[in-house]
Specification:
RHH_sf, 3 helices, 74 residues, 19% strand, single chain, 54% helix, two-stranded antiparallel sheet, alpha+beta
């Protein structure tokens, strides 16, 4: 497996622009999950943002969400 460097991704959460740094595999999986749920990545990111602990960064919360999604499927 090759090392993946995080890349900045732009999101809009509740009308405010923000960015997260995610590796391509996490971003791709996040987009796939949003599409499967019939949501935009912004809408799903807003859900994750609202549910996360304040001590957890948004990028970390997205990674943990993706991990949990695929663990639940196996």
């Amino acid at each position: 497996m090759t090392a993946a460097r995080p890349r900045k991704r732009s999101l809009t959460l509740r009308g405010h622009r923000t960015s997260v740094s995610l590796e391509d595999p996490f971003w791709d999986a996040f987009r796939e999950i949003a599409a499967a749920r019939g949501q935009s990545v912004n809408a799903l990111a807003a859900e994750i943002d609202a549910a996360r602990d304040l001590d957890t960064g948004l990028a970390t919360a997205i990674r943990l969400f993706v991990l949990a999604h695929y663990r639940e499927r196996s």
